[in-house]
Specification:
Layout: H1 8-73, H2 76-83, H3 88-102, E1 112-114, E2 120-123
Antiparallel strand pairs: 1-2
Helix pairs in contact: 2-3
């Protein structure tokens, strides 16, 4: 029966395991899982906020450009040219108005009037006239 007798060092080792190592291991496992979940949640929230912010910035930019298009479309010289695409005097006046609109922002290379067939009929840059932009429907 001597082999079943628990020695003192075995008792100390068992107590050390129960009181020290097992609780530390348990707390470590729980804290690692909680930290992983919190960091994953934070990362997902960050990505969602960035994408929402980016989408908002793109929408604001496009709304601004849409406002510019509407403004140019309401200019009297542009309206007059749109009513009669064959009138050379109206075309010259429209070119001046388009050049002024293109100068409004450095983002615009050229501002143009496009006929229903998709051809540029008047533009702030003369070399653009006659170009087909039908593929951009």
């Amino acid at each position: 029966m001597a082999f079943l007798r628990i020695r003192f060092w075995q008792k100390v080792l068992g107590a050390l395991l129960c009181v020290g190592i097992v609780p530390v291991a348990l707390v470590s496992m729980v804290s690692i899982q909680t930290t992983r979940q919190d960091l994953t949640s934070l990362g997902v929230t960050n990505i969602l906020q960035r994408s929402t912010s980016t989408a908002g910035a793109i929408d604001a930019y496009l709304q601004s450009r849409l406002g510019d298009i509407v403004l140019v479309g309401k200019l009297p010289d542009i309206v007059r040219f749109g009513q009669n695409l064959k009138d050379p005097a109206a075309k010259a006046a429209a070119r001046v108005a388009l050049s002024a609109a293109a100068a409004r922002s450095p983002e615009y290379e050229s501002v143009a009037v496009v006929d229903p067939d998709g051809n540029i009929t008047a533009a702030s840059i003369l070399t653009d006239e006659g170009t087909s932009v039908k593929f951009r429907e």
